[in-house]
User: Which sequence fits this backbone?
């Protein structure tokens, strides 16, 4: 596959950047999306799909997609509208869509609103809180992470995020009373550098998991929806969210190799099982 070509698209409140690998006219397009993860996280996974065109993009506020508005937070509706506009700009028929984490949340909103744009949607580990028995604790913790970020910076906030997302099983009702994790135990900075532009901690953390999806629209959509989760992340928040979404849709949860980011092949210093993950994704798309 040739090197990707980069394109820009002005949308309300942002300028989006997206990359195209291959010839868009050569067959069904596979679009790979994350949130807040940008296109740089999909290099390895895209390399397994050289038999067709692949599109990746940076969500608003992440990577190269700079925001032009003055608000601090983004909603899944905004991200879904961005995806809708990118697909319109591509000028192709219905695409196959893979969404990871927040990208899966945003993809669910896209499919509920614009099902004609997506042929098959694989939603991998959407961290949806509303389907969980501990939804109130999860949403309250996300709010606390946001407040911690704006009060104390990225280190303390990210430590709380890691503690939340790596914990197995439902959060206890007194989770908020547990001692805050030490950023140093995760190799995170303990001093506040003053930056407040992190797309996860400052932009998406409160709106992503708390979003309440339209399961009636999803159940009747023309899009074929596959909900997936990593075998190694069982019990964790995003895996539990995926299982809850699958149950609401009346479909089986499909297990993929690896963990929450099982498709990574060294991006961000992380290694999953990209070989196995790509095979599982190809199977899910057929």
Assistant:
């Amino acid at each position: 596959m040739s090197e990707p070509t980069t394109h820009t698209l002005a949308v309300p409140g942002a300028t989006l950047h997206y990359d195209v690998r291959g010839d868009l006219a050569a067959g069904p397009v596979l679009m790979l999306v994350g949130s807040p993860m940008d296109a740089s996280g999909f290099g390895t996974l895209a390399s397994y799909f050289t038999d067709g065109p692949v599109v990746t993009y940076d969500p608003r506020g992440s990577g190269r997609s700079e925001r032009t508005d003055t608000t601090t937070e983004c909603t899944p509706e905004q991200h879904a509208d961005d995806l809708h506009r990118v697909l319109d700009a591509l000028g192709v028929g219905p695409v196959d869509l893979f969404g990871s984490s927040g990208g899966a949340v945003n993809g669910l909103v896209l499919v509920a609103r614009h099902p004609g744009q997506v042929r098959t949607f694989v939603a991998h580990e959407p961290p949806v809180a509303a389907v969980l028995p501990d939804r109130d604790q999860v949403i309250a913790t996300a709010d606390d992470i946001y407040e911690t970020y704006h009060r104390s910076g990225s280190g303390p906030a990210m430590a709380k995020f890691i503690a939340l997302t790596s914990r197995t099983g439902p959060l206890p009702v007194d989770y908020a009373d547990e001692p805050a994790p030490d950023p140093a135990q995760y190799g995170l900075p303990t001093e506040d550098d003053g930056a407040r532009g992190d797309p996860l901690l400052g932009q998406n953390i409160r709106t992503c998991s708390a979003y309440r999806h339209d399961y009636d629209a999803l159940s009747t959509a023309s899009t074929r929806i596959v909900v997936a989760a990593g075998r190694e992340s069982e019990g964790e928040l995003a895996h539990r969210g995926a299982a809850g979404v699958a149950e609401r849709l009346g479909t089986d949860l499909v297990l993929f190799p690896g963990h929450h980011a099982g498709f990574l092949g060294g991006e961000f210093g992380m290694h999953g099982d990209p070989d196995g993950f790509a095979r599982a994704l190809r199977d899910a798309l057929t």
Q: What stands out?
A: The mean pLDDT is 97. The CA atoms of residues 35 and 178 lie 28 Å apart.
